[in-house]
Amino acid sequence: MIKTILEKIRYSWKMLTTVFTCFFGISLFFICSSIPQNFFAHFLHVDPSYTGGLVCADFINSSDDGSPLLRYTVHEPVTNARWQQSAEYWQLDLEFKDKTPAFNIIKIFIDEDFELQLTDTEGKLYDNSGNLICNTEYYKLQNGSLIKIRIPLQYKKVQKLLGAKQTIHYVLLDDYAPLTIEASMKAHKKSKKEEAKNKAYIQHVKQLYAEKQASLMTQIQMPQGKTTDENLAYFKDKINTNPDDFVSLAYYGSWLAVKGGESSVMKAVALVNEAYTYLDKAAELADGKEGEIDVLLNRASVSASVPEQVFGKAAVGAEDFMRIVSITENETLKAYSYVMAYECYQKCGKETQAILALQEAQKMVQYQ
User: Fold this and answer.
1) Nearest to residue 244, comparing CAs of 298, 284, 294?
2) How far, in Å, CA of 294 to CA of 285, rounded?
């Protein structure tokens, strides 16, 4: 009896490893479309003057202080910008936790010289005597969760910012506690050492998860077949017997995605899309029930693996991994879900959420 159980556990781990390996191989079938994109992304350089300038300071509010402000970014002043509303400008970004933040007014005091006032629709810059200097360029993006302010620098009163070495920003949002940010006026370079450290940490957490994977899957049901078609037949039979068996629905959807990885490009797209009809139904049925983690791991793993430019599922994967974080008590699974959410957020362009997810993972599992 014990020998049989141990054999099943070993087989479970082997099968799951194979499944997740296959997931990450799905994108190989879209290599023809991704190579040109990667080639041009490598050689095409977008001048920072078009995107706001290089970053000088980046404050992320990870504390649970109730403030809706999530991130405040200070860019390096831009000069000689072509095809922009202002040839010389200074950009500040404010990112909020909610898509449609409600606030009456935001005041940003810069050193003791300027006061920037932002409403829900515009921004105005004043001097320290309360005199209006200029209106700013005001851009609201991402359903209102991101505001980009560009302060024109052609006015004499603000031109001294071009030569400033450092500025201090006091950000006041309604009645919330003020934030104080010190910003150098020269862009900082990304640390390659830090990037390498993060990459090593992520690999460590994934390896740790792989070693404990079998024990973390709570409701696993193993087929006896070893091929993709045999596994599909096994779970299809279980679904036919019980259409509401959400765990089997999830595994069937996952194996459809794996089947896509073994097919031509056009067939792969059709199979992955079909896979989500089962994965989504499984997630809906599993909500709040035992076995939900198994279901979410299946859908999240597929979402993290399929090409984002084709299916656009990275955001779904991130949400699933973050849901797992909220319902599991296992620290290894939490850390793994955080780092996978980090990768999903990066794929769908949610950089702030990615940074926060990685920070939370590092609190769960230490790595030197």
Assistant:
1) 284
2) 12
Q: DSSP for 136-184, please give it.
A: -EEEEEGGGTEEEEEEE--SGGGGGGGG-SEEEEEEEETTSPPEEEEEE
- Residue 135: the pLDDT is 96
Cβ proximity of 151 and 88 under 8 Å: no
Segment 348-366 shows an average pLDDT of: 90
Stretch (H or E) spanning 58: strand 55-60
**76/90 Cα distance (integer angstroms):** 7
Q: Residue 18: pLDDT above 90? A: no
Strand-strand pairing, 166-173 and 179-184 = antiparallel
Q: Are 253 and 243 in contact (CB under 8 A)?
A: no
- What count of other Cβ atoms lies within 10 Å of the Cβ of residue 238? 18
Q: Which amino acid is at 78?
A: V
Asked whether the beta carbons of 235 and 248 are under 8 A apart, the reply is: yes
| pLDDT value for 333 | 93
- Tell me the one-letter amino acid at 260: G
Backbone angles phi, psi at 221, to 5 degrees: -125, 120
The arithmetic mean of pLDDT across residues 225-235, rounded, is 86
Find all residues with CB under 8 Å of 282, minimum gap 6, and list them: 246, 247, 249, 250, 253, 295, 298, 299
Torsion of Cα atoms, 323 then 324 then 327 then 328, to 10°: -160
pTM over 0.70: yes
Q: Which 8-state DSSP code applies to residue 190?
A: P
Write the pLDDT tens digit of every residue in 249-289: 999 999 999 999 888 888 999 999 999 999 999 999 999 99
Token match 């010289």: residue? 113
Q: Would you tell me how many other CB atoms lie within 10 Å of the CB of residue 49?
A: 18
Determine the Cα angle at 55 with ends 68 and 342, to 5°. Answer: 60
Asked if 265 contacts 271 with a C-beta cutoff of 8 angstroms, the reply is: no
The residue written with tokens 């193993």 in the block is 222
For residue range 189-199, list pLDDT tens digits in order. Answer: 777 788 888 89
Distance CA 285, CA 299 (A): 13
